[in-house]
Specification:
With 261 residues, chain A is an all-alpha fold. Helix content of chain A is 79%, strand content 0%. In chain B, helix 6 links the parallel strand 7 (157-161) and strand 8. Chain B starts with a strand and ends with a strand. Chain B has nine helices and 20 strands. The chains are: A mainly alpha (261), B alpha+beta (345).
């Protein structure tokens, strides 16, 4: 008990506390000025906005992938199951290079998209794509065991009680999966907010347009403006905390099995 | 509602779960499908419910083709062995589910639904659990809620798949009695699947004994116990002594010893002799058709169960009344009071 707590402190709490202490070197006024600058606000907006959108896409697509992997037996199922983990395992820089060459104007996917007038690489859309890429395993791997545990008999029960397929999904399956879905959403979101390596290759990194907050932190650090960097970091930390906390509460609420109606 | 099943065949790969089953279920009866696991009884039940589809054959309800309808349209109440309750819903909402998902045109208003659910919870004597969640209930309570949920849609037929299979012995016995009296009260045509012969004989009006995808016998509980139609039924229902015998020229032989039993009307060849344990009467040596030495004896309430090594080497178990104590080492004569011989090895 004592050991785990000290370990947790050394690994997580002390670095976080250090971050806060560093940012205390700034006066509230300076702090506010850094945050309210246009470039900082835009970077935060890009990071959190796109991360949330990507997490939502992952929630929907991830659920569909999980459903196929758990409920259907098809040739190559194990291979697809393993492929889900690739974004976990791949060094983020490798993923970034791969994605940006794929979506570059002359890339395999970039060329046909460019013909349609859609530019992905070096725009916010590219950031969005990279965030989807790195977030998908989080949704799949959190929902998968829960769906595996969900007895197909409850669907048969709902059907024999007269429920349509749609009613069965809305009233029986989704409420049973809700806690896992929310956890998956939160993890995919957190990962997308914190992602750096794969995004900077594809983002273009134009200040105010496609510059993510973690990149801005790195830029400030390389300019030796440590206090600026920690101020942005603290904001990211607090916002992330609030979101994780909210999702946690939501999850507990769902787990208390309040009747879905 | 009558149910008629004709020449039903269902294969899983090369395994025939149902191999030509014919069955007629009368209106309002409580029928048991009894058989060992793998005998096809659950498959038959699921096909009647519309949860599985046969490869060939017919299923009709009151003469209407049921296979033309899915599970949703058949209006059949199904109770699962592991309850299949919706764990995120309260007991009340579980029971109300079937009423809430009805098409808008026929859906009852909230007050009617509440009254109906209350009525059903009263029927299963669990109205005080309405606000609990399934995980807070005991197994027996869960199964009764599952039954109330199935009854909510006023099913034309009630199907129960090993309803008490996951419960402990004591609860099982209570629920058996309860199910019988409930059926007496509501009189809906019901079929339940079980591998427990005691359960089938105690609860059902009629028993269907199945083995390897075929029906072996259909009859009242007395019929299947007293006059088993096949060797399988005799061996499966009740405790039986089973001895391989030869029928030759009007004589029944066990090994090389002729048995002093009538062989009238029996086909010659390898056969099986079946005797209920309690139908084997004990007498002094030399007095009976068989002879053996008592190996050991255990007492079960009113009877003593003795393991007896027959003179030919076979070992059998008999149940004898306790008026004459048997002891290990005794040599005794055995005479079957009633017995059946079925042709075939």
């Amino acid at each position: 008990m004592g050991l785990t707590l000290s370990w947790l402190s050394v690994i997580i709490l002390i670095p976080l506390a250090g971050l806060f202490l560093k940012s205390l070197e700034l006066s509230p006024e300076q702090f506010w000025n850094i945050l309210s600058s246009r470039r900082t606000l835009n970077a935060l907006r890009v990071s959190f906005g796109l991360a949330f959108a990507a997490a939502c896409v992952n929630l929907v697509m991830g659920s569909i992938i999980v459903w196929a992997l758990v409920r259907y037996r098809f040739p190559g199922r194990r291979i697809f199951d393993a492929i889900v983990d690739v974004p976990f395992a791949l060094p983020t820089a490798v993923a970034g290079v791969a994605l940006s060459s794929l979506f570059a104007e002359k890339g395999w996917l970039g060329a046909p998209l460019a013909a349609l007038g859609i530019k992905v690489a070096f725009t916010p859309v590219g950031i969005f794509v990279a965030m989807i890429f790195i977030g998908i395993p989080f949704v799949v791997r959190t929902v998968q065991p829960v769906l595996q545990d969900l007895d197909p008999e409850i669907e048969e029960a709902a059907g024999s009680l007269g429920a349509s397929r749609w009613q069965t999904i809305i009233r029986v399956i989704l409420p049973s999966l809700a806690p896992a879905l929310l956890t998956g959403l939160a993890l995919a979101f957190a990962r997308a907010v914190g992602e750096y390596g794969s995004i900077i290759f594809i983002a273009g990194n134009l200040p105010n347009v496609s510059e993510i907050a973690p990149l801005l932190i790195v830029i400030r650090l390389s300019e030796f403006r440590y206090a600026d960097a920690t101020a942005i970091a603290v904001v990211m930390l607090v916002v992330s905390f609030v979101i994780i906390f909210a999702v946690n509460r939501l999850q507990r609420w769902a787990q208390s099995r309040i009747p879905a109606r | 509602m009558t149910i008629e099943v004709k020449n039903l065949v269902k294969k899983f790969g090369s395994f025939a779960a149902l191999d030509g089953v014919d069955l007629k279920v009368n209106d309002g009866e409580l029928l048991a499908l009894l058989g060992p696991s793998g005998s096809g009884k659950t498959t038959l039940l699921r096909i009647i419910a519309g949860l599985d589809w046969p490869d060939a054959g017919e299923v009709s309800f009151n003469g209407e083709d049921a296979l033309a309808q899915g599970a949703r349209e058949r209006h059949v109440g199904f109770v699962f062995q592991h309850y299949a309750l919706f764990r995120h819903m309260s007991v009340f909402e579980n029971v109300a589910f079937g009423l809430r998902v009805q098409p808008r045109a026929v859906r009852k208003d909230e007050a009617t639904i509440r009254a109906r659910v209350k009525e059903l919870l009263d029927l299963v004597q669990l109205d005080w659990l309405a606000d609990r969640y399934p995980s807070q209930l005991s197994g027996g309570q869960r199964q009764r809620i599952a039954l109330a949920r199935a009854l909510a849609i006023e099913p034309r037929i009630l199907l129960l798949d090993e309803p008490f299979g996951a419960l402990d012995a004591k609860v099982r016995k209570e629920l058996r009695k309860w199910l019988r009296s409930l059926h007496h009260e509501i009189h809906v045509t019901s079929i339940f699947v079980t591998h427990d012969q005691e359960e089938a004989l105690e609860v059902a009006n009629r028993v269907v004994v199945m083995d390897k995808g075929r029906i072996e016998q259909i009859g009242s509980p007395d019929d299947v116990y007293e006059t088993p139609a096949t060797a399988f039924v005799h061996g499966f229902i009740g405790e039986s002594i089973e001895l391989p015998v030869q029928v030759e020229g009007g004589v029944i032989r066990l090994g090389d010893r002729p048995l002093n039993l009538a062989a009238d009307g029996l086909a010659p060849g390898a056969s099986k002799l079946f005797v209920r344990r309690h139908d084997m009467l004990v007498g002094p040596p030399g007095s009976g058709a068989l002879e053996g030495a008592v190996q050991h004896v255990r007492n079960f309430g009113p009877v003593q169960r003795a393991e007896v090594a027959l003179s030919g080497g076979e070992t059998i178990e008999i149940d004898a009344p306790r008026d004459r104590e048997l002891r290990a080492g005794d040599t005794i004569g055995l005479n079957p009071r009633r017995y059946r011989i079925f042709a075939g090895a």
